[in-house]
């Protein structure tokens, strides 16, 4: 890129940009323009003063004309279409032209400071200020990296800070509240389905009192540095300061922006706290946890190594296994944790956590790696809560369902990956829309009055089209479906990122093509309970002072929401799990920041540690038991457990054991199986820790007994012969 700029500056080809001594306009090269029209913006007073100073020092003003080709863009008005953004651009500090027409490049620098916290909301709204704003929805509090806009144009939740059109010297200001070492800035344009706005260059200033300001200077020229900014709305662009600056306040001053657009940006500031020997400022709050765990991001090799280490440290309660491979051949590793790893114990429920379905949502992956370390360590220490959890439950942790997508995001880095890159698997498939749609056939059968007599209300089979070899089903999805069918899971949570809320099924709206609509399952009470348990024990969700992440304030709903009432998701794993298996699954949106910086992992672990444990313990809620043959005491597999008033049944595992999640109350429960007389009993679920035992003994029907005797070549007993004759007489 810099070589291209050098050539443009040297040969000074045709028309369009006015270039002063600062070189600011050259940096607008990446900005789309209408044709060969000039892409110039009136310079603020500071720029004019700088140009005058340059002329006084004998530097003649230069003019360069650059041909910029416009890219055609299609705006979809009705629904936002996600497309992978361009690769992140790492830019350096301002490029200036010397009298000899050479480019003065700063030395290569690597970012050495973490983000200040605009994206993660550690920086509060009242720490942000601006010279002006077009509206409240475009105020400085919206100038946060990766913030997402609302769907309505001009609402209170727009996707950037935007200065007023008539603001000749716009600026966005951040108050760090403490002496801070600023080292870099990351910017994006405006997130919107209605407009295209982004800044193409900006300056940076600093202050200790918000009154006296100084600018970031170019090393060689000593003039104010002008930094190249964005060439599209979404790709994050990193600029490192020529020299880090210690101050309390930092300002970004847009110099040029997209022609026909507005001065709009989203930003993150890279900054390190510095000591305050005079004690003039309050101490910076320490983020973190006292747990001695591995708090860093792990790529595929590091994740595999860590899981192996946990297995070696706790061989008696852990087992690492693979459920399949990604499209690029990376294994989908699972950590099993139980007192008898590798086997299903009769009466012991199976629970799973799945993370990394979207590869760029990295926090869930790290939380599961931290959870397996924590459970291992605390079991060895004899912690009673962890010991009971591992002796009464079989836990399965899948930290990376989409390892291909994660590797893409990991290579970009936590701050430069943007909002969507790495979300999809290597085939470009969104795994959370890739499971079979079982909702539609169930609802059509319900409308025709076929459920549950003709069409079951549970364990719906895969549609024929979905099983064809050429069906668009990702290998990661197929692997997880086989995993679900192989193990009798009871409870699950799917860990995502980008919001702070727990959503529960159904995820798909019942009305076709409805964008959002309340669509509860027959187990609405159970799902609301499960969601509330996680949200109620998550520190971040329970913070009364936290602001909304993007465009919805979920705290007014208790930080839980029906998935379809948020936005429809056909083919979700939650709905599929509920309709194809016994498993009840919710989605946990863990953080506003999809890929938080490593220095925030300690706090995120503290935010979620108790919630992760408490949610696992909810598998004890409801009733559980074994359905046995009355004569042989052998467990009956695939017996159906039906609860009066709830149009969704579960089935027994191969040993006859079952678990039925229920909220406290009195229930009439019926167990039935092919070849047996059904049995019904009353079961009471209390608020005390369960599950409540609710066992059944079923008696074979005369026809079933006859079939078994004839198959064995045995003589039919007289009592059975008489019962069969009575049945024939009744018919």
From TrEMBL:
Name any one Pfam family assigned in the record. F5_F8_type_C
Any one Gene Ontology biological process term?
Answer: proteolysis
Query: Where is it localised?
Result: Secreted
Task: Write the record's keywords in alphabetical order, separated by commas.
Answer: Carboxypeptidase, Disulfide bond, Glycoprotein, Hydrolase, Metal-binding, Metalloprotease, Protease, Secreted, Signal, Zinc
The Swiss-Prot or TrEMBL record lists the needed cofactor(s) as:
Zn(2+)
Locate the region Disordered.
34-63, 79-112
Q: Write out the catalytic residues in the record.
A: 589 (proton donor/acceptor)
The family database entries (SMART domains) matched by this protein are listed as: FA58C, Zn_pept
Tell me which CDD domains the record gives: FA58C, M14_CPX_like, Peptidase_M14NE-CP-C_like
Peptidase M14 domain location is: 296-619
Q: Which InterPro entries match?
A: CarboxyPept-like_regulatory, CARBOXYPEPT_ZN_1, CARBOXYPEPT_ZN_2, FA58C, Galactose-bd-like_sf, Peptidase_M14, Peptidase_M14_domain
Q: Which residues form the F5/8 type C domain?
A: 111-272
Q: Where is the composition biased (Polar residues)?
A: 34-61
MF-aspect GO terms: metallocarboxypeptidase activity; zinc ion binding
Major site of localization recorded for this protein:
secreted
Signal sequence annotation? 1-16
State the family named in the UniProt similarity comment for this chain.
Answer: Belongs to the peptidase M14 family.
PANTHER family for this protein: CARBOXYPEPTIDASE X1-RELATED (PTHR11532:SF43), PROTEASE M14 CARBOXYPEPTIDASE (PTHR11532)
Summarize the protein's role. Answer: May be involved in cell-cell interactions. No carboxypeptidase activity was found yet.
Q: What is this protein called?
A: Probable carboxypeptidase X1
């Amino acid at each position: 890129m810099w070589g291209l700029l050098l050539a443009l500056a040297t040969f000074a080809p045709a028309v369009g940009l006015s270039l002063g001594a600062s070189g600011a306009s050259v940096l607008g090269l990446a900005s789309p323009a209408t044709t060969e029209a000039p892409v110039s913006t009136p310079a603020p007073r500071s720029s004019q003063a700088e140009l005058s100073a340059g002329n006084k020092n004998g530097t003649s003003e230069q003019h360069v004309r650059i041909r910029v080709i416009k890219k055609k863009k299609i705006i979809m008005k009705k629904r936002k279409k996600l497309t992978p953004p361009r690769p992140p651009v790492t830019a350096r500090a301002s490029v200036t032209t010397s009298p000899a027409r050479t480019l003065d490049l700063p030395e290569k620098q690597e970012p050495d400071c973490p983000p200040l916290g605009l994206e993660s909301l550690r920086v509060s709204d009242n720490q942000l200020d601006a010279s002006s704003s077009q509206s409240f929805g475009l105020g400085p509090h919206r100038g946060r990296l990766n913030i997402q806009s609302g769907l309505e144009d001009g609402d209170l939740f727009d996707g950037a800070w935007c200065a007023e059109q008539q603001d000749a010297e716009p600026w966005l200001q951040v108050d760090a509240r403490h002496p801070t070492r600023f080292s870099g800035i990351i910017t994006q344009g405006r997130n919107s389905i209605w407009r295209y706005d982004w800044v193409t260059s900006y300056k940076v200033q600093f202050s200790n009192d918000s009154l006296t300001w100084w600018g970031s200077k170019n090393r060689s020229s000593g003039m104010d540095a002008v930094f190249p900014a964005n060439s599209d709305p979404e790709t994050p662009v990193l600029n490192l300061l020529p020299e880090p600056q210690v101050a309390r306040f930092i300002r970004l001053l847009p110099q040029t922006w997209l022609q026909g657009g507005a001065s709009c940006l989203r930003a993150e500031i890279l900054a390190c706290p510095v000591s305050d020997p005079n004690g003039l400022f309050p101490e910076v709050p320490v983020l973190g946890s006292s747990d001695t765990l591995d708090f860093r991001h792990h790529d595929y090799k590091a994740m595999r190594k860590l899981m192996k280490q946990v297995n070696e440290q706790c061989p008696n309660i852990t087992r690492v296994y693979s459920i399949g491979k990604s499209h690029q051949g990376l294994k989908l590793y699972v950590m099993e944790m139980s007192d008898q790893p590798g086997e299903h114990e009769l009466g012991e429920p199976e629970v799973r956590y799945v993370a990394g379905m979207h590869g760029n949502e990295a926090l869930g992956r790290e939380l599961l790696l931290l959870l397996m370390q924590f459970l291992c360590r605390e079991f060895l220490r004899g912690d009673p809560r962890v010991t009971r959890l591992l002796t009464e439950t079989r836990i399965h942790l899948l930290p990376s369902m989409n390892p291909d997508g994660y590797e893409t995001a990991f290579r970009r880095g936590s701050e430069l990956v943007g909002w969507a890159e790495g979300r999809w698997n290597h085939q470009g498939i969104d795994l959370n829309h890739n499971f079979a749609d079982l909702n539609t056939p169930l609802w059509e059968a319900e409308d025709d009055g076929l459920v549950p007599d003709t069409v079951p209300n549970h364990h719906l089979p895969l549609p024929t089209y979905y099983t064809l070899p050429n069906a668009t089903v990702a290998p990661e999805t197929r692997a997880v479906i086989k995993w679900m069918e192989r193990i009798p899971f009871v409870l699950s949570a799917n860990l995502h990122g980008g919001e702070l809320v727990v959503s529960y099924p159904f995820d798909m709206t019942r009305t076709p093509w409805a964008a959002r609509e309340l669509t509860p399952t027959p187990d609405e009470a159970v799902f609301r309970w499960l969601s509330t348990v996680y949200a109620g024990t998550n520190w971040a969700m329970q913070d009364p002072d936290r602001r909304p992440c993007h465009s919805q304030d979920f705290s007014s709903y208790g930080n839980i929401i029906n998935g379809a009432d948020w936005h429809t998701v056909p083919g979700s794993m939650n709905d599929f799990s509920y309709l194809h298996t016994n498993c009840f699954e919710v989605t946990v949106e863990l953080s506003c920041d999809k890929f938080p910086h490593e220095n925030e992992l300690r706090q995120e672990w503290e935010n979620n540690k108790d919630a992760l444990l408490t949610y696992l313990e909810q598998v004890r809620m409801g009733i559980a038991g074994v359905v046995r043959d009355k004569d042989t005491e052998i467990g009956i597999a695939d017996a159906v457990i039906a609860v009066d008033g709830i149009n969704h049944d579960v089935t027994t595992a191969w040993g006859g054991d079952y678990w039925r999640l229920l909220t406290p109350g009195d229930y009439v429960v019926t167990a039935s199986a092919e070849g047996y007389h059904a049995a019904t009993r009353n079961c009471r679920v209390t608020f005390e820790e369960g599950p409540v035992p609710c066992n059944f003994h079923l008696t074979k029907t005369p026809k079933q007994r006859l079939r078994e005797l004839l198959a064995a070549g045995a003589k039919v007993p007289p009592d059975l012969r008489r019962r069969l004759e009575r049945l024939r007489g009744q018919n």
